[in-house]
Amino acid sequence: MSVSEIEALLKSKEDYKIALRLFSILSIAKGESSRKAQELLLLSHNQICIWVKRFNEFGLEGLNDRPKTGRKPKITNDQLDWLKNLILNESPTKYGFNTETWTAPLLVKVVEKHCNIVYSDDMIYVLLKKKMGLTHKKGKGFYAEEKPELREKFVEDLKKTL
């Protein structure tokens, strides 16, 4: 494991975060300057001041992360479930597209039509990964000419269309 991976793992653990915050407060209580604590703990001066203030106001509870707030999502959980089912179990041809593979631009159109929500291609990728646990995979090209038996079928099918 690399140093950055270990640091990320430590920072993801709630107990580590609180211990680090307590250690910064302990350093200040022992007379260290916040600048010295900043260098030692690799936290910003501003962060240390915030934790000291919150500890003084709220005690140990003040060191917990506050609930994250933000804008309400445009898409509901039911719509996300519908979209995930669509991606995993249905073909774009069923929705009038001339392809067998879902792409972000196609999903943008389907979501806009069926959910009345306008998203960018980038946001569709975010929804796929973070909200649905899906990953973007690039399709591998298939060429009928690669294998002799498929080549013959390809030629026959091509002749029928001409």
TrEMBL record:
InterPro entries: Homeodomain-like_sf. Pfam families: HTH_32. This is Transposase. It comes from Flavobacterium branchiophilum.
